[in-house]
Design goal:
Radius of gyration: 19 Å
Largest sheet: 11 strands, mixed
Number of domains: 1
CATH superfamily: Ribokinase
Number of strands: 15
Strand content: 25-35%
Number of helices: 10
Structural class: alpha/beta
CATH class: Alpha Beta
Distance between the termini: 23 Å
Strand order of the largest sheet: 5-4-1-8-9-10-11-12-13-14-15
Order of helices and strands: EEEHEHEEEHEHEHEHHEEEHHHEE
Shape: globular
CATH architecture: 3-Layer(aba) Sandwich
C-alpha cells in the first residue's frame, strides 16, 4: 500500500554528538552520523521500520510502503540518494540545478531534549523543475493510498504546493495528512486534508494572535477529520468533530527529541492504513508510542529498545466529549 511522502526540501543530515555543548570552545565528538534527512525522510524511515518489524495490525496488503517524492541536486544530492538506498528507502526525485542542502543536528548529551538544529534553506527550484515534479506526482497518485505533505519548502516552490497536491489526492480518494508550518500550513489546511498534525507553536503562528484552538476548530468545521496538536514533552491534544482527546506519551530515557513529531505522524498514518476501523484512540496510541520510541534513539527513527509495541500499554489517551470532562480511554 503505497504512501507518497513529500521530500521537497531534501537534506543530507550531519549528526554531531558532544558530551556537553560549550559555545566558543573546541569540541571532540563522542558520536556522529551522516543520514538522509528532512521531515519527509523521517516519516518514511519510521513507516519502513514499522512495516519491517510487524508492529502494525492488518495484513501485508495494508502495510504502508513509503515512496518519497521531491528534489535532488549536485554532489550532495547524489550522496542523499546513496544514503536513501543504504536504508532501503525508495524515492522518485527530480534533478535540480542547485545542490541538495546540508543540515546539522547537534545533540548535547548533558541536555538531550535541547538538541540544536541548523537548517539550511535549500536550493532554488526553477519552474521547469517544479513542472516535472508535478507531472511525476500526478502519475504516481493513481496507485497511492495516502499522501503525507510534510516539511519546509525550498526557495522557488509556492506556498500553496501542498494545498494543490492535497486537492488532487482528495479527488482520487487518497488519505491526506498535512504537517507543515507558516503559509504552507495555512494554505494546506484550507484544502481540507483528512489530518492536520502541528505543534503548538506552528498553530499559534497561523492563528496570528488569536486562539490557536479556535483555528483548529475552524479546520474541523471545514471538513478536516483530525487535528493533532503536539507540545513537546507535554500531552498532545487531538481534536475531532465528535470530541477531543488528550494523549500522554510514556516516559523514556531521552537521547534526542529530534524527529519525534515525524515519528508520531508516521505511527498515525501507519495505523490508519493498517486498521482504518480501529478508532482514533488506537491510532493515537500507536502515534504516541512511535514518538516516544524515537526520542530514545540518538538518530531520527525508532529505537529497538524501547520499541513502539513495548510502549503501547504505557500511552494514555483521555477522551472528552463536548461539555464533558476528560475520561481515560482504553485505546482499543
Amino acid at each position: 500500500m503505497r504512501v507518497l511522502i513529500a521530500s521537497l526540501n531534501s537534506a543530507v543530515e550531519r549528526l554531531l554528538v558532544v558530551s556537553e555543548h560549550r559555545p566558543g570552545t573546541v569540541h571532540r565528538l563522542v558520536g556522529g552520523d551522516t543520514l538522509a534527512g528532512g521531515k519527509g525522510v523521517n516519516v518514511a524511515r519510521v513507516l519502513a521500520q514499522l512495516t519491517r518489524s510487524g508492529a502494525l495490525a492488518g495484513t501485508p496488503d495494508t502495510a504502508p510502503v513509503p515512496l518519497l517524492v521531491g528534489y535532488s541536486g549536485g554532489a550532495t544530492g547524489r550522496l542523499f540518494e546513496e544514503l536513501l538506498d543504504a536504508e532501503g528507502l525508495a524515492a522518485a526525485l527530480v534533478p535540480t540545478a542547485g545542490a541538495t542542502r546540508i543540515c546539522e543536528v547537534l545533540v548535547d548529551q548533558s541536555d538531550p531534549e535541547g538538541a540544536t538544529v541548523y537548517n539550511a534553506p535549500g536550493p532554488r527550484i526553477a519552474a521547469p523543475e517544479r513542472d516535472r515534479l508535478d507531472e511525476a506526482f500526478e502519475r504516481l497518485l493513481a496507485d497511492t493510498a495516502a499522501l503525507v505533505c510534510t516539511g519546509s519548502m525550498p526557495p522557488g516552490v509556492p506556498h500553496d504546493q501542498y494545498a494543490r497536491w492535497i486537492t488532487q489526492a482528495r479527488q482520487h480518494g487518497v488519505l491526506t495528512v498535512l504537517d507543515a508550518h507558516g503559509e504552507a500550513l495555512a494554505a494546506g489546511a484550507g484544502a481540507v486534508p483528512d489530518v492536520v498534525k502541528v505543534n503548538l507553536d506552528e498553530l499559534s503562528d497561523v492563528a496570528d494572535g488569536g486562539d490557536p484552538f479556535a483555528t483548529a476548530h475552524t479546520w474541523l468545521t471545514a471538513g478536516v477529520r483530525l487535528v493533532v496538536v503536539t507540545d513537546g514533552a507535554r500531552p498532545a491534544r487531538a481534536l475531532t468533530a465528535e470530541g477531543a482527546f488528550e494523549v500522554t506519551a510514556p516516559q523514556v530515557g531521552v537521547r534526542s527529541a529530534v524527529g519525534s513529531g515525524d515519528a508520531f505522524c508516521a505511527g498515525l498514518v501507519g495505523s490508519l492504513l493498517a486498521d482504518p476501523a480501529a478508532g482514533w484512540e488506537a491510532h493515537l496510541h500507536m502515534a504516541a508510542a512511535c514518538g516516544a520510541s524515537n526520542a530514545a534513539s540518538v538518530t531520527a527513527g525508532l529505537s529497538p529498545d524501547p520499541s513502539p509495541v513495548s510502549l503501547l500499554p504505557q500511552v494514555t489517551v483521555c477522551r472528552s466529549m463536548p461539555g464533558q470532562s476528560p475520561s481515560r480511554g482504553t485505546g482499543s
